[in-house]
């Protein structure tokens, strides 16, 4: 998206504002499918949690994507797109058996990540095929908060517990139709991913009715100029060849699945915020914007980097700023960052704001959640209105109660 277009959108819809470029989403989707074009059966299930606006879901399903969900609410949201329930996979963590049963009634693919629920579900619903999430005991991902396949992770059934899975299947008569893993996000080492894949192949061949293997995702995208990212094309070459060999060994053409979220939408998103105050202290120049970690928490939660540009003054002299928010806690987006000279009322653009940004926004400090805009074929569409105080109060119940009466002692003191 061009700088001038973003400025026009900030003026038209106000700030802060999320903007999504669907051209970039489509490019990323086609890049991933192209990397695995030698696989006969490939299915990309977009991770709804990354960016869950229903218009984004519709756009991706129109491209041919399925949807990867982690809660019954995400399943229900996905179904509003008109998608076939069979193209939704549900991979919760630590939820109740009751929620899984409710989701099963909706006809989506169930994916279970612990032995207790697997056994309980199999005893009650042996006729419903399920996928199992395996923990491959592989440390992968950008940091400890987004590494989910290691031995101490809460996710998945340990590879050492596969005999227990087989015993549950034997005792209940249930059918395991898929094997799944997700090792973490921001994966760079292809060899680590391939090593985890070999573990999945070893598990899959122990079950007779596998229809698909889901390798998760976590592919890293570049966050700044010169940044490194997952070599999708090389991974596609190596994993496709190994997957096709496995299908031959297994004696059946099965489906290769991924659940990309960040890879598809991260670079498509821009977050626009206006500068309220430029504040010089004894050691730092702060640029205070009309937002905070209530709208974009990733820098504070994950120490993530978001490139920031001053789209109001792109040719200005570079200076060093700490870009901070208006929340009543330390909410620093960038420290000592080189940005073209900033003045009050300038609009700053936070790049790579498509994934896990709006979806993690909150009403902290009773601030409104921003609006969202989607660009399709160069035209802008408002896809979520900015909140109002009515939205803040909507589900609050005002109770009419009498104030507590004061004791005699309190009255005297008063």
From TrEMBL:
Instruction: Write out the similarity annotation.
Output: Belongs to the Orn/Lys/Arg decarboxylase class-II family. LysA subfamily.
**Amino acids binding pyridoxal 5'-phosphate:** 218, 356
User: Which coenzyme or cofactor does it need?
Assistant: pyridoxal 5'-phosphate
Listed under subunit, the entry gives: Homodimer.
Q: Which reaction does it catalyse?
A: meso-2,6-diaminopimelate + H(+) = L-lysine + CO2
The name on file for this protein is Diaminopimelate decarboxylase
The record describes the protein's role as: Specifically catalyzes the decarboxylation of meso-diaminopimelate (meso-DAP) to L-lysine.
Gene3D superfamilies (alphabetical): Alanine racemase (3.20.20.10), Lyase, Ornithine Decarboxylase, Chain A, domain 1 (2.40.37.10)
A Pfam match is: Orn_DAP_Arg_deC
Q: Which residues cross the membrane?
A: none
**What GO molecular functions are on record for this protein?**
diaminopimelate decarboxylase activity; pyridoxal phosphate binding
Sequence ranges assigned to domain Orn/DAP/Arg decarboxylase 2 C-terminal in this UniProt record = 18-354
Q: Mind telling me which PROSITE patterns this protein's record contains?
A: ODR_DC_2_1 (PS00878)
Which HAMAP family would you find in this protein's record? Answer: LysA
Matching entries from NCBIfam families are given as: lysA
Q: List its EC numbers.
A: 4.1.1.20
- N6-(pyridoxal phosphate)lysine occurs at which residues? 49
- Where along the chain is substrate bound? 298, 302, 329, 356
Q: Does the keyword Nucleotide-binding apply?
A: no
Q: What's in the keyword line of the UniProt record?
A: Amino-acid biosynthesis, Decarboxylase, Lyase, Lysine biosynthesis, Pyridoxal phosphate
Does the record bear Secreted in its keywords?
Answer: no
- The entry's active site is 328 (proton donor)
Per the record, the domain of life is: Bacteria
């Amino acid at each position: 998206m061009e700088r001038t277009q973003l400025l026009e959108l900030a003026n038209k819809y106000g700030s802060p504002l999320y903007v999504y470029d669907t051209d970039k989403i489509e490019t990323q989707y086609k890049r991933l499918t192209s990397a695995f074009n030698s696989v006969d059966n490939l299915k990309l299930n977009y991770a709804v949690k990354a960016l869950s606006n229903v218009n984004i879901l519709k756009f991706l399903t129109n491209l041919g994507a399925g949807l990867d969900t982690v809660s019954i609410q995400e399943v229900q949201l996905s179904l509003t797109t008109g998608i076939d329930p069979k193209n939704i996979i549900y991979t919760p963590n630590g939820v109740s058996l009751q929620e899984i049963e409710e989701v099963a009634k909706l006809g989506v693919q169930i994916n279970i990540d612990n032995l207790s629920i697997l056994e309980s579900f199999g005893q009650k619903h042996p006729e419903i095929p399920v996928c199992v999430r395996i923990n491959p005991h592989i440390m992968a991902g950008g940091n400890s908060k987004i590494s989910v396949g290691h031995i101490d992770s809460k996710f998945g059934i340990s590879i050492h517990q596969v005999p227990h899975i087989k015993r549950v299947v034997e005792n209940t008569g249930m059918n395991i139709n898929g094997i799944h893993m997700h090792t973490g996000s921001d994966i760079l080492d292809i060899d680590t991913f391939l090593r985890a894949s070999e573990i999945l192949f070893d598990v899959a061949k122990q079950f007779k009715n596998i229809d698909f293997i889901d390798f998760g995702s976590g592919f890293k995208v570049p966050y700044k100029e010169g940044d490194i990212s997952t070599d999708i094309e090389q991974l596609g070459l190596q994993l496709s060849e190994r997957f096709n060999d496995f299908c031959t060994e297994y004696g059946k053409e099965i489906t290769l699945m991924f659940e990309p979220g960040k890879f598809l939408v991260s670079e498509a998103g821009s977050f626009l915020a206006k500068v309220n105050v430029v504040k010089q202290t004894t050691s730092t120049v702060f640029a205070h914007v009309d937002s905070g970690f209530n709208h974009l928490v990733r820098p504070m939660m994950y120490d993530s980097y978001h490139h920031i540009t001053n789209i109001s003054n792109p040719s200005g002299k570079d200076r060093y700023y700490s870009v901070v928010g208006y929340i009543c806690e330390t909410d620093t987006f960038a420290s000592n960052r080189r940005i073209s000279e900033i003045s009050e009322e300038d609009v700053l653009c936070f790049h790579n704001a498509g994934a896990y940004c709006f979806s993690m926004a909150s009403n902290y400090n009773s601030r409104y959640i921003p609006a969202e805009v989607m660009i399709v074929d160069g035209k802008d569409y408002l896809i979520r209105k900015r909140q109002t105080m009515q939205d803040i109060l909507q589900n609050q119940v005002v109770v009419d109660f009498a104030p507590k009466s004061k004791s005699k002692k309190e009255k005297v003191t008063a």
